[in-house]
Amino acid sequence: MKTKYAIVFIFIVALVILEKESNILSRVSDKLIQRQTPQTPSPLDFSNMTQSGLSLLKMLLSKFNGTHRNSTEDQELDDDPIFNYNGGRKHVLLLATTRTGSSFVGEFFNQHGDNMFYLFEPLWHVERMLATAAESSNATVLAGIYRDVLQGLLLCDFSPLEKFISPAPLDHVTPDLFRRESSISLCEEPVCTPVIKDVFERYHCKTRRCGPLNLTLASESCLSKQHHAIKTVRVRQLDTLQPLVEDARLDVRVIHLVRDPRAILASRMVAFSSKYQTWKTWAQDGQVPEDDEEVKRLKGNCDNIRLSAEVGLSQPRWLRGRYMLVRYEDIARYPMQKAEEMYRFTGVPFSPQAREWILRNTQTTQGASGIYSTQKNSSEQAEKWRFSIPFTLAQVVQRVCGPTMKLFGYRFVDSEKTLRNKSISLLKERLFQRV
User: Fold this and answer.
1) Which pLDDT score is estimated for 434?
2) Which residues pair with 92 in a beta bridge?
3) What is the DSSP-derived secondary structure letter of residue 45?
4) Segment holding 94, helix H or strand E
5) Cβ atoms within 10 A of the Cβ of 271, count?
6) Where are the alpha helices (DSSP H) in 65-156?
7) 390-394 long-range CB contacts below 8 Å, 24 or more apart?
8) pLDDT value at position 73?
9) Residue 169: its pLDDT value, please?
10) What is the dihedral angle through the alpha carbons of 142, 402, 260, 275, rounded to the nearest 10 degrees?
11) Does residue 153 contact residue 122 with C-beta atoms inside 8 Å?
């Protein structure tokens, strides 16, 4: 009995020591980051503990429960990146490139319900402000800025992002957050404040009229949610996120969304018509100079996607259990199944609201009158590019993006007839290992 009391006493002392250590680290971090939005950490927030503190606490818990592990078992537990004390809170990063269906897939989490705080492309502000310096700046420095902003937002700290919003927020209030209406969390009370006089249309959300965004209220709303998710197309290399993934305060899951590079080019030529005018000219002329900067840029984009995927699929220790690669085409074919897999991977419960949204937005339904509704059939949408891209351009993509296409299981076409024939699948059945 005395031994048990002694263990209880040691356990309490350990908690006090660890809490003090966490507070010291927190004060140092606050000074470095210069937080501007309120944080409300729990007095016993285990996620802020150092690795040595976690090891001590696990050892004490083991003894108090009357169990014993040898040093090898302790080391295995220490090495397990899933082991944490974050209280079940999950942080989801959906990484993609433009025109891969990331906005659609992001809605799988945006539509989760009251327990999810979702942000749509917050790095847009960072990219816009740094655009003029991007070509001459060190890519590693830019990647570090992207990472730090994401890290702050996953921790519900909007102050790093505020530095890049233009014009600068006044008293943490801005009418200019990019695509604010794409986040349900930013369009609901109390974040959606009443509309003031002379508010412009751009302040509005999809379902209600909101005034300028108060980032302090947004931070408080974020802190009140059980889970956090961010969709971004601006992270070039996965390995630059290692410090973020290893942050003990977070429990990050990375979903890497990829798509057939031929489909991406076809979609970009439509969505970004002015920027892809050169490709349109080549489509008409039938001649593509493969030493052109546009072709080199396409190759660079494909290489970046492939290199990031190779990092994730190679199972580095810091990503073990935290990386999932998924093809947009598979989601389009089996939306509910893939959504279930993604939710299971993240550890976030698959809510009825999310299920209902997916059913409503991915299936062509037939009403009592026999007339089809206007809802899109996701599988058909995923194949439309095959009838819009010229075969000449498809060949160029296959040459410069060949290694990327092979890694993801996309079949090459050797004729326009094959390209247009939808009965011929351009997808190899591929089960990517979730690690």
Assistant:
1) 52
2) 229, 253
3) -
4) strand 91-95
5) 11
6) 71-79, 102-110, 123-134, 139-154
7) 390/283, 390/286, 391/415, 391/416, 391/419, 392/282, 392/283, 392/286, 392/288, 393/262, 393/265, 393/266, 393/279, 393/282, 393/283, 393/288, 394/262, 394/419
8) 37
9) 96
10) 60
11) yes
Give per-residue pLDDT as tens, 263-305: 999 999 999 988 999 999 999 888 889 889 999 999 999 999 9
Q: In this structure, are residues 419 and 413 in contact, taking their beta carbons and an 8 Å threshold? A: yes
pTM score of the predicted model = 0.77
Higher pLDDT pick, 384 / 18: 384
Q: What digits encode the pLDDT tens for the residues 337-381?
A: 999 999 999 999 999 999 999 999 987 544 433 333 324 567 788
What share of residues in the chain are helix, strand, coil (percent, to 5)? 55, 10, 40
Asked, as a colleague might, if the bond just before 41 is cis with ω within 30 of 0, I would say no
d(CA 237, CA 254): 13
Q: Residue 409 carries which DSSP code?
A: T
Per the CB < 8 A criterion, the answer to whether 263 and 397 are in contact is no
Length of the chain: 435
DSSP 356-404: HHHHHHH---B-TTS-B-S---HHHHHHGGGGTS-HHHHHHHHHHSHHH
List, edge to edge, every strand of the sheet that includes 323-327: 116-120, 227-232, 91-95, 252-258, 323-327
Helix/strand/coil (H, E, C) string of 73-84? HHHHHHHCCCCC
